[in-house]
Design the sequence.
């Protein structure tokens, strides 16, 4: 058994904890994209528009025709342009227009479009795939029947969205299923499945684990193609603990009221694997409502087939931590599982602690220091971990930590650079929103006070949902830790 809190060689830790891709790296494909595939789409509307996120807006006083030329000449820089339609005929010194940057903008779309609208919007779209393709031969058995919160998602006026086919979903260059897998590829949509996406985020530290899920998809490296695309994802049937292949077509679910994707979004650089994995899990579990709420541990069972899942919670009376799971200590048998987290046995039994890290009977309680040492040992063994914030609404936050929300634990490092500082790297599956006012947040004083810590951990200072916290800060905000006791070492890639 490895020493508790033992440290891996730096090169091994780097293989797992590679730096997240920057926005600039993700957008680099736009500058070198095939110029013949860019198209400009015009909209006449009445000034209102929707978006998921909005980048910078540049208001320019000047001739609109010159602005249009500038906009069309640089689609990598600008995703949209807006101006008052009639203003084109005004004196040049009275004209102005607005350029919207591509960086930071997602899902921009004018609303209330009508011929009598008084505003014009232009959108630079990349025509990655053929737009008009007959998909009838490859339609799966679930997409047309999917509902969410009691509403059927799709009809003739609200169709599913096919990435890259001109429907406003991933109309970008570099479209692919799997590229350089990274936790930053994950951005939660409108479904309450942070438990699933935080679990996937932790799994994404191991590129090979994600690729294995898609191993049954033939020709994956060439997808998506102009011809209709179908994907096979291998999950686990938790009633039998056997692998099962789930096949879904390329159509991604739209919100019932329109306005974009229901589920998570493609990455900025065009990776689609998260979207189809989430869709496959929804299909496997019985629908979107069946994955609206759940636990990281359940997700890891679905994704890896590992039964040894642990939920570690702070005991209210002692303030220490207890180990729990779905194995009944009285009968020494596992409770009945189901694919949906809302079915099967939904409780927790006290369980013996994982042998790796120190073991211990189900009655054993650990303090914060003891638990952190074990978390370091589990991290060294390439187990995957998550955590949950205090109960509450995810519309509320404490110091930037969202209430009632699941996060991924990406790294645990004790005595960083010999400074005696113990730090934990955490990720929000929203892909944004981080810890604030801490010693080691992006603007925290710790990085300047201890440059040796900064040199070893190489933090990335941007709002990507990834942040560092001290051991003390972590346990102040996260009272539940999730653990999947399966080594993912075999899935590490250089």
Sequence:
């Amino acid at each position: 058994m490895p020493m508790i809190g033992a440290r891996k060689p730096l090169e091994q830790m780097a293989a797992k904890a590679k730096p997240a891709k920057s926005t600039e790296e993700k957008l680099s494909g736009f500058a070198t994209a095939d110029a013949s595939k860019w198209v400009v789409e015009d909209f006449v509307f009445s000034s209102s528009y929707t978006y998921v996120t909005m980048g910078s807006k540049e208001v320019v006083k000047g001739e609109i025709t010159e602005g249009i030329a500038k906009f069309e000449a640089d689609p990598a820089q600008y995703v949209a342009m807006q101006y008052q339609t009639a203003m084109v005929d005004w004196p040049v010194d009275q004209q102005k227009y607005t350029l919207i940057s591509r960086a930071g903008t997602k899902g921009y779309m004018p609303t209330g479009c009508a011929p009598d609208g008084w505003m014009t919007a232009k959108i630079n779209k990349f025509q990655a795939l053929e737009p008009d393709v007959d998909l009838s031969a490859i339609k799966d058995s679930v997409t047309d029947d999917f509902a969410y919160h009691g509403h059927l998602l799709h009809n003739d006026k609200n169709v599913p969205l096919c990435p890259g086919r001109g429907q406003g979903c991933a109309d970008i260059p570099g479209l692919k299923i799997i590229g350089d897998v990274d936790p930053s590829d994950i951005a939660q949509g409108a479904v309450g499945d942070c438990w699933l996406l935080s679990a996937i985020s932790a799994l994404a530290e191991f590129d090979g684990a994600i690729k294995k899920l898609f191993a049954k998809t033939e020709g994956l490296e060439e997808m998506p193609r102009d011809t209709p695309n179908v994907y096979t994802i291998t999950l686990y049937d938790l009633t039998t603990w056997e692998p099962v292949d789930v096949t879904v077509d390329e159509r991604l679910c739209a919100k019932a009221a329109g306005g974009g994707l229901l589920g998570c979004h493609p990455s900025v650089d065009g990776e689609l694997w998260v979207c189809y994995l989430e869709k496959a899990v929804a299909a496997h579990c019985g629908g979107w409502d069946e994955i609206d709420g759940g636990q990281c541990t359940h997700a890891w069972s679905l994704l890896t087939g590992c039964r040894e899942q642990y939920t570690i919670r702070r005991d209210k009376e002692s303030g220490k931590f207890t180990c729990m799971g779905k194995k009944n200590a009285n009968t020494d048998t596992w409770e009945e599982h189901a694919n949906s987290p809302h079915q099967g046995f939904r409780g927790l039994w006290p369980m013996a602690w994982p042998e790796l890290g120190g073991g211990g009977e189900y009655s054993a309680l650990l303090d914060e220091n003891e638990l952190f040492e074990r978390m370091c040992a589990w991290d060294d063994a390439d187990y995957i971990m998550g955590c949950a914030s205090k109960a509450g609404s995810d519309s509320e936050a404490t110091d930037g930590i969202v209430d009632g929300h699941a996060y991924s634990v990406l790294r645990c490092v004790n005595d960083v650079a010999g400074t005696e500082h113990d730090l934990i790297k955490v990720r929000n599956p929203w892909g944004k929103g981080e810890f604030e006012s801490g010693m080691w947040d992006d603007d925290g004083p710790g990085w300047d006070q201890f440059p040796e810590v900064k040199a070893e951990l190489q933090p990335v200072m941007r709002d990507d949902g990834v942040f560092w916290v001290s051991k003390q800060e972590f346990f102040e905000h996260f009272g539940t830790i999730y653990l999947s006791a399966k080594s993912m070492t075999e899935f590490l890639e250089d």
Notes: The first strand starts at residue 38 and ends at 45. The two ends are 26 Å apart (CA to CA).
